[in-house]
User: Which sequence fits this backbone?
């Protein structure tokens, strides 16, 4: 399956709540990194928290609520390596995938206390996993 986003099409947002993506978000330009459970990222590896568990909306407020609709990514390889070390299931093999992202994908913003943590909100039709390719095992 390939991305259905076309360069000349006017991008449309999914049915996001008001304020999503938040003010200060900008078009991504460059490489970002995603921690995955598979060497070749799947759609499940790049699902948002909302797609994985919509009930999380009942538990989250503010920026956490808005970020539920986005994908957590890191802006550096080292940032991704550091983040992978914090995952609870240390016996599971993790992978880092690299994605070269552009304005056609959506908007991104640095979020939370970790300076490398960003959230990516993608336009309708963007198949996030197709942008990410295996980088390394962590």
Assistant:
């Amino acid at each position: 399956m390939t991305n259905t986003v076309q360069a000349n099409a006017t991008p449309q947002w999914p049915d996001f709540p008001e304020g999503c993506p938040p003010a200060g978000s900008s078009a991504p330009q460059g490489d970002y990194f995603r921690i995955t459970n598979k060497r070749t990222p799947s759609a499940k590896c790049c699902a948002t928290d909302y797609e994985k568990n919509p009930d999380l909306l009942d538990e989250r407020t503010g920026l956490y609520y808005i970020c539920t609709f986005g994908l957590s990514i890191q802006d550096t390889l080292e940032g991704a390596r550091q983040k992978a070390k914090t995952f609870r299931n240390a016996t599971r093999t993790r992978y880092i995938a690299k994605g070269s992202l552009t304005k056609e994908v959506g908007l991104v913003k640095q979020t939370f206390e970790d300076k490398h943590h960003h959230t990516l909100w993608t336009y309708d039709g963007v198949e996030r996993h197709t942008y990410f390719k295996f980088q390394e095992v962590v």
